[in-house]
Amino acid sequence: MSTAPDATPRPPIALPVRLPDGSRLELGTATASYQVEGAIHEDGRGPSIWDTFTAREGTIRDGSDGAVACDSYHRYTEDADLVAGLGLDWYRFSVAWPRIVPEGRGRVEQRGLDYYDRLVDALLERGVKPTGTLYHWDLPQPLEDEGGWLERSTAEAFADYAEVVAARLGDRVGLWATHNEPWCAAYLGYAAGVHAPGRREGGRAHRAAFHLVLGHALAAERLRAQAGAAGRGIDVGIVLNNAPIWPARPEAEDVADGVDAIRNRVWLGPLVDGAYDEGMLRVAPELADPDLVREGDLARIQGSADWVGLNYYTPVRPDLPGEGRSDHPEGGAYPGVAPFELVVRQPITDIGWEIDATGLDELIRTTAERTGLPVLVMENGAACADTQVVDGTVQDTDRIDYLRDHLAAAERARAAGADLRAYVVWTLLDNFEWAEGYTKTFGIVHIDPATQARTPKASYHWLAEAVRERTTPPAS
Length: 476
Ligand code: FCB
What we know:
By secondary structure, the protein is of the alpha/beta class. The protein has 15 helices and twelve strands. The strands form three sheets. The chain has an eight-stranded parallel beta barrel with strand order 1-2-3-4-5-6-9-10, surrounded by five helices. It has a two-stranded antiparallel ribbon with strand order 7-8. The longest helix has 25 residues, at 205-229. The protein is globular, with a radius of gyration of 21 Å. The N and C termini lie close together (9 Å). The structure holds beta-D-fucopyranose. Beta-D-fucopyranose (FCB) is lined by residues 32, 35, 180-181, 184, 241, 311, 379, 426, 433-434, 442.
């Protein structure tokens, strides 16, 4: 069967079947709790910062929120069927902290744990390996009321919560990500203010970045101790949206270095070297404060990841101000860097992000070299203008092209020697796309907002066939 929707001949791309160590490249798809679950008042879930943020006028493009989303809280077996239909190895889901510890610390809500227990079993029954993410941005609001990620106590509460989740699911879920894209949580949340909690704290956002990576290390310690006591293995990593930083011209190299510091080195420095480099401290002098980064903290963070996850969508091209775009929503997200602009070249996806698959190839190779760790691509995908169901499907040809090119780029990086272990497609379902609400769709399955009916798009069928063949089907 060929489901490629047009007649343009496309060269087949051999997906690696065996990696150098004898294992197989794992293929998966991902979602995140707040983006798909809905049921925000059910089974004792407490409020999260995204409930609060979405309720504020003007924060979300279409004024929407995640109250219903894809209703996956009730339809998770349907979702598990869809994943199984793809024949994928993995489903990457995230756990909503406010479902498990509604006040952020202390009391544990068993009904919240029961939900993830059912989800994990539904996946396993269908032969899909569940991989969990502990923090995909839905911080319990009571913790934000105490200062959120600007405070060390949030990192400590995160480790307690992580242990509770792993105690319940660790017998069936062996691969855990602590954080998803802590750059977004820290800098879009506390500097640019375009994500929850919507604060514009300037350089104080570096405190959030530090507490996030500290929280990762504290949680990883607890998960390993627990797995060790239970006599089982565990792989704990962190998923970063590090990006290739390509200065638009030589004069922009300085600002590009600052952007690289805040986007990439703020994580890799502590994780790999147990230190922040000089250029990093120049743009973020806050990180040299011994009351923030206490003695022993960096040593604890160093080496705390077994693997590093990468979410890649687009390269970042800083330029001096006066060129390119000045209204970029991420504009305020790099506190401490001299004024700059972000240039976006054509072609772009429906969300305005430049398409350049060579960025993925470069990012995988440089990250593998820099960290010496296995690399997992934990998100990659495209927003397309694809809301029309015609003859029972959606012809999202652009998405197929995007995925094909990026899979090829991942394969190039692997062939060049990078220790790449997984490639995960964002996302299974059209869902709540944060500040864009439901106006941007990344799913390989269309959702009818009125009925919640799930309709696999052409890209779903394409991916299923790619998985089946472990080679990309040529169009016929
Ligand atoms: C990433 C997020 C994910 C989704 C994609 C499009 O930054 O991790 O939740 O919104 O972007």
